[in-house]
Amino acid sequence: MTRLGGTNKVNHVICRRCGRKTYNPDKGYCSHCGFGRSSKIRAYVWSYKFKRKW
User: Fold this and answer.
1) N or C: which end of the chain has fewer CB within 10 A?
2) pLDDT at residue 11, rounded to an integer
3) Which of 26, 30, 28, 27 has the alpha carbon at shortest distance from 14?
4) 1 versus 9: which is more confidently predicted?
């Protein structure tokens, strides 16, 4: 059983490519742009509507 105040692990840090706080040092890649996993920017068809709003 864990204490309620014992969850302080940082899972995501700032990504060098996209600048967002979505790079996971344990997995070694960014969940937003795919840095560390692919040389191409991560993009899916289902996310185009969301990316258009930015």
Assistant:
1) N
2) 93
3) 30
4) 9
The number of residues in the chain equals 54
Amino acid identity of residue 40, one-letter, is K
**The pLDDT of residue 2:** 62
Contacts (Cβ under 8 Å, ≥6 apart) of 38: none
Distance, CA of 13 to CA of 54 (rounded, Å): 22
- Among residues 48, 45, 27, 46, the alpha carbon closest in space to that of 37 is found at 27
d(CA 38, CA 10): 23
The predicted-structure confidence for 16-29, as pLDDT tens digits, reads as follows 999 999 999 999 99
